[in-house]
Amino acid sequence: xxxxxxxxxxxxxxxxxxxxxxxxxxxxxxxxxxxxxxxxxxxxxxxxxxxxxxxxxxxxxxxxxxxxxxxxxxxxxxxxxxxxxxxxxxxxxxxxxxxxxxxxxxxxxxxxxxxxxxxxxxxxxxxx
Length: 128
Description:
- With 128 residues, the chain is mainly alpha-helical.
- The protein is 40% helix and 8% strand.
- A 3-stranded parallel sheet has the order 1-2-3.
- Helix 3 links the parallel strand 1 (42-44) and strand 2 (73-76).
- Helix 2 (24-36) runs parallel beside helix 3.
- The longest helix is centred in the N-terminal third of the chain and has 13 residues, at 24-36.
- It is globular and about 40 Å long.
- The termini are far apart.
């Protein structure tokens, strides 16, 4: 799912702005329909939210999580700054799609053994 129609990773911020965005409510309603139809996970594309934008649309992320929860939603996180933000605000269990070259960095951040100053020592999980 995405907040942009026809956006791709090579689309510039200017082109995305010119195309406009979907109302996040539209995307959420579509996602609910897919879940009702049997989808097990909804993937949210980063274009128009944290990628190729002048400022991140954290309001869209919050609306998606408030309406759909965390268990059945996965967010694309195109770089460490983005996945660090998701973990800082929504915890280490949030479902994230990252480039294969960033998996070790992400998992070390989730485990609390890597991070920038704003996260170091602040990522905690309490599992049995």
